[in-house]
Design a protein that fits this description.
Oligomer: single chain
Number of domains: 3
Helix content: 55-70%
Structural class: mainly alpha
């Protein structure tokens, strides 16, 4: 029963987070904190009722590992802070479900904590492709800059290098691997396009007065040689930070406009990947 309500709570909060993310591009802290804190409470309750401390430690460790991986993606500029905290909560749920003895479907080769990330990658491919293509059509400069970036010597070298595994599979007569390895050049070109989208379409300049709590700066805010606000703050700006930045702009210490980062609205992917992992297991098996 504890696991059932934990799954219901998680799915409900992920649905709400996905809807808000799609509508506003932000995930409120109260949702992410409720998710993570609530699931830790469920884990503690399960550990107490079943007299099994691992029902708390396992979810906590899996959640911590998910947080670390997500934080790396955040620092690389790929995810938002809300995505990081939601994924940590998902890790807690998966750890709890597994420790409670849930029989994962279609998961003979892949452990559940890897299956979630693999399912997420599989589901995200069409989602991100359509999302960024729409951005490209809405902002034609994306395609122009992409064509410019793809002709750079460094990029051409990387694309050429990515063909080596498929060429080796042909030389070594491993035809089954050739098709798989040919995905590497596609992935390389796709990465260049996504980075172009990030620079050209996933950042926007707004008046300082338009800042709101949770916004993430595109660049560190430095005044007088001192870094006051970091672009790598997962929590985003607090209301006090916003007031301070507005004050700095009012004194003329910084520009009246500021650039913030807004990534691909990824919360729906996190929800669908969770549902796929629980009810389908590993999509790749």
């Amino acid at each position: 029963m504890i696991v059932f309500w934990a799954v219901v709570l998680t799915c409900a909060l992920l649905f709400i987070a996905s809807w808000i993310d799609l509508m506003t591009g932000e995930i409120p802290d109260r949702i992410t904190k409720t998710l993570f804190g609530g699931l830790l409470l469920f884990s503690a309750a399960a550990a107490f009722v079943n007299r099994d401390p691992f029902m708390f430690t396992t979810p906590f460790i899996v959640g911590a590992c998910f947080f670390i991986v997500s934080a790396i993606l955040f620092f690389l500029g790929q995810w938002g802070g809300g995505d990081v905290k939601i994924t940590a909560g998902v890790g807690v749920l998966l750890g709890l479900v597994s420790r409670m003895g849930y029989v994962w479907p279609n998961m003979d080769l892949t452990p559940y904590y890897l299956a979630y990330w693999m399912n997420m990658a599989f589901i995200s491919i069409p989602y991100v492709a359509v999302y960024t293509l729409v951005l490209g059509f809405m902002r034609p400069n994306v395609f122009k800059q992409f064509l410019k970036n793809i002709r750079e010597h460094r990029t051409l070298f990387l694309i050429g290098f990515s063909f080596i595994p498929s060429l080796l599979s042909i030389i070594l007569a491993i035809p089954n691997a050739t098709g798989l390895y040919l995905m590497l050049p596609v992935f390389t070109v796709g990465t260049v396009y996504l980075k172009t989208c990030e620079r050209e379409a996933l950042m926007k300049e707004i008046p300082v007065s338009g800042l709101s709590e949770g916004d993430i700066l595109a660049q560190d805010l430095v005044v007088g040689g001192k870094k006051l606000f970091s672009k790598r703050n997962i929590e985003g700006l607090t209301s006090e930070d916003v007031e301070r930045i507005i004050c700095l702009a009012g004194r003329g210490d910084i520009s009246e406009n500021i650039t913030i980062r807004w990534g691909v609205k990824f919360a729906p992917i996190l929800m669908f990947a969770l549902l796929a992992t629980i009810y389908l297991g590993s999509i790749f098996e």
